[in-house]
């Protein structure tokens, strides 16, 4: 045998077999945990990586403090009063959490919509007027469709003109506030059919320990979780919000994804508008009564770990963030703090949460 002939070190693989071997070595599924403990650790890291774990710990500490204070002084701090729990847990938190999910999903895709408050007013007025004239189901469809329409108008301006969403939607917020006055006049829109049994059961029914709003939050939160964290479109939203150029390089259409995010935002805001309208039985045109919802919805998303720069956030974190904000608001009210303390708190909370999120992003990198 010639000395130049290579030694036989085993069977020679064909090109397809070699490719398959390399592919098998590089499979991501090989690194997935197979035990219960392994999957639990992975899920814990998933939650922590989006700030949900830390904010949940803060919420738990706050609840322990509230419960302790209420047990020590039931009259001075009536947190455990059934009426208070029903109002906060079953009404205030679900509405803010749904609005927070709307704002958060849009922020994950890299955009804002500052017309949320006036849009609530416009959607609620549409819902009330159509419900009064054409019935409940037509009113529900009209209210949600109104929200989607407003969001798509705003989104189209942002996507196709490339005007920053902060500026475009700020300007449109004044437009939709004026539009609500144009549609209804300056007098409040009154929902005279608010005592309709079907309407009450769907949107304001008291089941004893909880209300209909809490049921809707569970349903919407579950759908949002599987859509955002388990569906291809949800992954595309994270990709577009994180790096639009990189997402486009892998054949993701940023314009399409952002318009979908705006549409989802509008649908959720439209549905929340119905919950608010049924609860209050009226809506004052102009948007002044709902303007604070814009600030609080964005605050819920930011406190829950959603990045202001896009590409980062979680459904669980947003819901926990909304719960934390509403519980602190409730605590300030029970403690008889001046009303401006609430606004002061929200402003400081957004700044602190933004700093925390920035540190988390730096740690992730």
User: Would you list the SSEs in sequence order as H and E?
Assistant: HHHHHHHEHHHHHEHHH
In round numbers, the mean pLDDT is: 85
Structural class: mainly alpha
Tell me the distance between the termini.
56 Å
Query: What is the number of beta strands?
Result: 2
Verbal overview:
Among the domains are: 106-185 and 193-229 and 245-287, no CATH class; 291-365. It contains 15 helices and two strands. The chain has helices at 15-25, 36-48, 52-72, 82-108, 116-134, 136-161, 165-184, 197-203, 212-230, 232-242, 244-249, 254-280, 292-303, 315-334, 340-364; strands spanning 189-190, 282-283. It has a two-stranded antiparallel sheet with strand order 1-2.
Provide a concise account of the structure shown.
This protein is 72% helix and 1% strand. It is mainly alpha-helical.
Task: Write out key terms for the chains shown.
365 residues, two-stranded antiparallel ribbon, mainly alpha
Question: What's the layout of helices and strands?
Answer:
Elements: H1 15-25, H2 36-48, H3 52-72, H4 82-108, H5 116-134, H6 136-161, H7 165-184, E1 189-190, H8 197-203, H9 212-230, H10 232-242, H11 244-249, H12 254-280, E2 282-283, H13 292-303, H14 315-334, H15 340-364
Antiparallel strand pairs: 1-2
Helix pairs in contact: 3-14, 4-9, 4-12, 4-13, 4-14, 5-6, 5-7, 5-12, 6-7, 6-12, 9-10, 10-12, 13-14, 13-15
């Amino acid at each position: 045998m010639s000395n130049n002939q290579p030694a036989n070190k085993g069977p020679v693989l064909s090109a397809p077999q070699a490719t398959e071997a390399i592919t098998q070595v590089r499979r991501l599924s090989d690194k997935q945990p197979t035990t219960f403990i392994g999957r639990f650790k992975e899920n814990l890291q998933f939650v922590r990586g989006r700030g949900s774990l830390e904010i949940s710990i803060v919420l738990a500490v706050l609840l322990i403090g509230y419960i302790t204070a209420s047990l020590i002084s039931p009259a001075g701090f009536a947190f455990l009063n059934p009426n208070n729990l029903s109002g906060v847990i079953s009404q205030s938190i679900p509405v803010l959490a749904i609005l927070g999910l709307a704002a958060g999903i849009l922020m994950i895709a890299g955009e804002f919509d500052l017309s949320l408050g006036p849009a609530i007013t416009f959607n609620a007025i549409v819902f009330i007027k159509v419900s009064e004239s054409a019935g409940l189901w037509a009113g529900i469809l009209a209210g949600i469709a109104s929200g989607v329409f407003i969001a798509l108008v705003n989104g189209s301006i942002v996507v196709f003109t490339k005007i920053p969403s902060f500026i475009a939607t700020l300007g449109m917020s004044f437009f939709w506030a004026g539009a609500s006055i144009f549609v209804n006049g300056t007098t409040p829109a009154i929902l005279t059919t608010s005592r309709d049994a079907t309407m009450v059961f769907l949107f304001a029914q008291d089941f004893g320990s909880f209300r209909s709003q809490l049921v809707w939050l569970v349903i919407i939160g579950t759908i949002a979780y599987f859509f955002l964290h388990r569906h291809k479109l949800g992954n595309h939203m994270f990709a577009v919000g994180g790096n639009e150029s990189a997402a486009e390089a892998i054949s993701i259409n940023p314009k399409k994804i952002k318009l979908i995010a705006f549409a989802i935002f509008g649908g959720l805001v439209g549905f929340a508008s119905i919950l608010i309208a049924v609860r209050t039985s009226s809506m004052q045109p102009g948007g002044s009564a709902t303007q604070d919802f814009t600030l609080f919805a964005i605050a819920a998303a930011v406190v829950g770990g959603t990045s202001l720069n896009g590409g980062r956030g979680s459904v669980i974190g947003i819901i926990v963030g909304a719960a934390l904000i509403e519980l602190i608001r409730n605590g300030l009210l029970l403690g008889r703090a001046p009303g401006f303390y609430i606004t002061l708190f929200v402003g400081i909370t957004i700044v602190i949460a933004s700093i925390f999120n920035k540190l988390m992003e730096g740690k992730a990198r």
